[in-house]
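Protein modeling request. Please complete all fields; requests missing the sequence field cannot be processed.
Requester role: graduate student
Desired output: 3D structure, C-alpha cell encoding
Chains: 1
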Amino acid sequence: MSELNWYAVYVKSRHEFMVATELGRKGIEAYLPSVKRLRQWKDRKKLVEFPLFPGYLFIHVRPRPEEFVNALRTNGVVTLLSNEAGYPTPVPAAEIGSLKLLVEGGEELDIYPHIKKGAKVRIRRGPLAGAEGTLETKEGMHTFRVNIEILGRSVGVKIYADDVEAA
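Delivered output (167 residues):
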C-alpha cells in the first residue's frame, strides 16, 4: 500500500473553505492553513478567518491517479500543483508539519514571497500598487526602494512582503 503524501491544490478564488469542507465530505484529508485578522466595518470590528495562502490548500492522499481525480472532481478545485505536467509534486511532510506548528503557535504571521533580497519587484496592492523597485531588508524589516540612478539616490518605504511580486 502506497504511503500518503501531501499535495498543494489550487482552487477558485475565495473557495478555499468550501473546498476544504467538500474534500472532507469525500474522506480526503485537507489542510487549509488560516489566520484570524481583525476587520473593521463602519459599525463594528470582527475577527475574520483568512486563508494563509489565498487560492491554495493541501491534501493528504496516496500518489494514485484515482485519488488525484477524486480530488480534482471537487467543486472549486482547479488543479494540483506540479513541477512536471501531469505528475503532481508532493510537498515534504516536514514543511507541512512546520507550517502547522507556526499557524497553531498563534503568533502574527507575515507571508514572504520567494523573492531574494535585491530582486526587482512590483507592488501588487495598496496605494503604491504598480510601483516598481527593489526589495531590501533593513533592521529586520522589508523595504521597497525606488532607485533614481542618475542622482545616485534611492527612496524607501517599509512594506509587507506579501504586497510585492517579482517584476
